[in-house]
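for the writeup, i need someone to sanity check this before i put it in the appendix. the sequnce is what the collaborator sent (i think, or maybe the updated version? ugh). structure was predicted straight from it, no edits. if anything looks off just tell me and ill rerun, i have time this weekend
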Amino acid sequence: MLFLFPVFNDIEDRSIIFNESYSSENGDVVISTNTSKALVSIRMLLLNGTTGLVLRYYSEASPDNKGNRFVIPDGDILVVSTYNSQNVTVHNYCDSSDFNVSIDTSYVLAIGNNVADLQANGDIIVYKQSFEYFPICAVMPFDVLGTKYIILSANRGARITVTGVGITTIVNLTFPECPGNCSLPSCARRDVSFQLDQQMKCHRHIHSCQLDLTGSIITSDFPVSVMVATGGLGSLILPPVNTWGRKFIIASFPAGDQLYRRTTILKMVSKVANTNVTIRCYRPNATLVKYDFYLNESGDHINQSISIDRNCLMQSNKPVLPMQILTGYGDKFIIPPVEQYSSDYLLPPDLCKSPYSTRLYSLVIISETKYIDGLRMDGMFMSILQIQKIGKTGYSRVFVDLIVPTLHRLHHIEPNIVFGVFVDCEMYVIPLGMRMASIDEKCKPTLSIPGDGLDNDCDELIDEDKCDTNSADVNSNSDCAATSQVILPCLGYIDTNGVVWKTTMPNNYDYQTCLKGSTGKIVLNF
């Protein structure tokens, strides 16, 4: 169900149910009930003080890395997947091309050094790759883009790329103060303002500097997408500051190439002044290692080297954005906060593929220890090779060896239990996804709609209550998880006898011919 609230100051008091299409008088904005992610399109009218409507969205469009529109500043290669069993049609507005994806058919799209604006008729998931064999990160959908970002870059030499969402947008790039007799070049000290023009199709702005621009601030009057090239082969899609967290697990990745992974470098930046950070690092039968940091100003940042074989719990009193850098190949990725873990992930088969080889790969899962037994892959128990408790934190690192890249769905049997997932592709590590809830905005209690992806009861947890008819969690302060999970089809695969099975919908059958030298009938029943 979709809800609309007429304008701007009376949002909470005058809600109406919206069950049909709406068009503005000038035809610029069109909303329909089958468009699950139109939030930013309508909010843009309000940010400008113009009369309009606010669209609020719930369970089918909770804030996460799934969506039906993605604006990517550049990426060379995009891997596009979906949870949907039926074809989803994707249109790239920037080059007017179209393609289809389904749950067992991902699409690899080459965009070169160009902008992509993907618009689909169903929810999709997008991963950006800088090179064919270097997947980097999940791309954030249109509905969770923000108007404030703080730059986090891995080393000296940064290229910041900002792309708008199809409306004229004013963007400001402000650099950290350079005190005294400042000798920094103008690209790191002279603030920049620029306009992304609605009339210029897929317009973007690039700011380059041969210095580390970590701590620089981007603000805009409408949501934008921000990417930072971080040197070598890597780039990062930055999350807006309202999604930053205060609790993180820094996982070890010993399954990788030990010749190249000797240490982990943790780099983080603060959102506001007076931020205290504590990191506790654990290894079985070893002494606890503890680090304490104080970040004095907004945009302050630190680097800390951590042994590759330690798992760490990091906590801060105010939001921070951390990046984990694995030395050797220079792989780097944003660490999702525990507050943004999800209960459901889709693992596309193309993330660990390269034009030269199919790499061995594995999963590192971060879960509360008491909930590990409920983890499932494709509806079945996971083949867990190792469980490593992270000190007395209550969390464990779970290692799952997958070997051959293929499509998998990861979930927990209880929809209110969340966990984090990292894909280890030998040369690089990819956080598989995360929620993108506005956990750093001032919380106001709201009515809970199951699976809405919001902190309805303001306890810093999201959808943590089971609210079925037999649950003790149901009350006026509930924050309800989804009451049911999507039933996915039986995924296509090739079995040990070489029989090729098709993806089969629930309660249907797939009949296949027996191979030469055998008799009988093979039936796949789901």
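Confidence is low (pLDDT under 50) at residues 1-61. Residues 140-238 form one domain.
thx in advance!!
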